[in-house]
User: Fold this.
Amino acid sequence: MSLKDERSRWEREVVEPVVRKHPERHNGDLATSSGIPLQRVYTPADVPDVAGDANADSAGRAAAYADKLGFPGEYPYTRGVQPTMYRGQFWTMRQYAGFGSAKETNDRFRYLLDQGQTGLSVAFDLPTQIGYDSSHSLSLGEVGKVGVAVDTLADMELLFDRIPLDHVSTSMTINAPAAVLLAMYVVVAEKQGVTRDQLRGTIQNDILKEYIARGTFIFPPKPSMRLITNTFRFCTEEMPRWNSISISGYHIREAGATAVQEIAFTLADAIAYVEAAQSVGLDVDAFAGRLSFFFSSGSDLLEEVAKFRAARRVWARIMKERFGAQSAKSQAMRFHAQTSGASLTAQQPDNNVVRVTLHALAAVLGGAQSLHTNSRDEALSLPTEDSVRIALRTQQVLALESGVADTVDPLGGSYAVEALTDELEARAQEYLDRIDREGGMAAAIDRGTPQSEIEDAAYRYQREIEDKERLIVGVNCHEGLGDSCMDIMAHNQDVHDAQIARTRHVLDARDESAVRRSLSSMHEAARDDTADLMEPIIDAVRKYATLGEMCDTLRQEFGEYRQHTVV
Amino acid sequence: MQESGRNTVRILIAKPGLDGHDRGAKYIARALRDAGYEVIYTGIRQTTEAIVDIAIQEDVQFVGLSLLSGAHMALFPRVVQLLREQDADDIIVFGGGIIPAHDVYELQDAGVRAVFPPGTPIQAVIDFIEETRSESSAEPAVR
Assistant:
């Protein structure tokens, strides 16, 4: 009797009588958060390639396994990008942090490093992310709020004071003005006596998802892509240990995308970046090894694990088959994960500790290279130091106590997880094919296709919560007796004035004519599509030109992007 | 299905400041429209002045402000103030986003009529609109 026949027998003789007496939840109509229907149970018949097709000979079975899964550290990297994964080294525990002034953030950084954090991740405030000085009228109320305010090199010097940049790796969530902040980092390092080739870290530098989901764009797509290819070239030539981009599904997912859309839109963005770099003459294997990725890790544990595995497999195939990348580094998708901020609740915030644990577990089972765990109070305010410590401890407990880090890809071979991995891959591939047919991601974004798909998914999701089809503990069920009181972080309202005063001092001390000269060289370079912008920017940074002055210089030449939103 | 009378209420959902998180704003805009109201959404990164101009031009009775960046104490009262300066303080202002509880009272003192925290059911917003709509002039005001 074949396995399929056995399955039918079991359904008929064993399951049916039980279900008649005790119906399944939702009459058995259960699905993942992306809407992939879930079977009652998965068997080898659902994943013959992985489980070994009984009709194939042993060589055939080995080939099918190698094609789908392979071994850790080998193509197609489904099981992980390193051969030993966390048996060698745990993932980098990298908490995104930054608020108020450079001084306050420097204190938080040194606190986190003292607590055993292994990498830094800088949150910049919104004016910095959008290229406005703190003194700009549009910066009102936003200075030092969601991150640290940076106006000039002087702020970056203070931000990394007493932090040896040859010893830490630093991730910077900066996109439209990424080239400027990278230049500042390079110059701060220089002043510490650390050379460019010693620097390890990442700039997010992913403008396409800003148009789709995150909103901190400045320039239109074309000059933005040029800034990105300029930074690719600079990193390739000068900073071999630096990730020149972090192609981000996180914000796409958090804006409401499903897991399938998260994979598809992120990889479609990645394809656009590789094509842009190739079009300016960069060799794929020279830069692709420094492309990194960033995903969300949410509550649907099995689907999330499958998502990370599927994303690695799809990317490896794209790099090898579509772009002809030869090097293993180009094919292996390294990614940072952050637990899902949007799934945290303002109600009963302590429950978020449990949610974050699940999210973090999914990221670890999915083979993340670095991880940020959110704090329990993020639906209420910026996290307190206590909440941040619990979040970091969550990672440490997972690493040191849970045992899940001791064998590579422990869910590999689970019939359910493998079946979901295949299904997510297939569904993401359908999207990718469609985006290709429609002329690529830049064209799709221009038409607003991914934006409206994400919006529809977000709307469906929220409706399900309203209708109690999707239950969130403490929100639409088990509401309990009201919320426990929680100390929350108070914003320092004096940051705005203090920051402006501080920058005024810097401006008073700088050589004004040198600043003008460097800005006009930058403008010259901006005018010529084929010129490099990195060195002129580094020069202006050294002269203490402000971020706003530099971005305004580029605005004059590039113009500004205007978003059209239709709901 | 539209409930009678609802379609005469016009609501502007707006994103002041530099915050790009508009999942919530878009949801509220769409859900209120589905509930039968006329809803306009500004898109992200609007100045308070632009929001007030749109509110007056579009002759709305409500302005719903959404902000997750922490700039609400600077920007929400400013919208109320600017409406007052334009003699348009019959327009009712409410808000939502990541707003700490102790800020809510201060915002209410400044004239923000209601603040809805994350996880608020849409019905709570609809109830608020239905309870307060009579205070706002139903007829287009002469300004």
In short: Chain A has a mean pLDDT of 95. The interface with chain B takes residues 126-127, 129-130, 132, 138-142, 145-146, 210, 213-216, 254-256, 342, 345-347, 378-382, 455, 458-459, 462-463, 466, 472, 475-476, 488, 491, 493, 563-565, 567 of chain A (CB under 8 Å). DSSP finds 23 helices and ten strands in chain A.
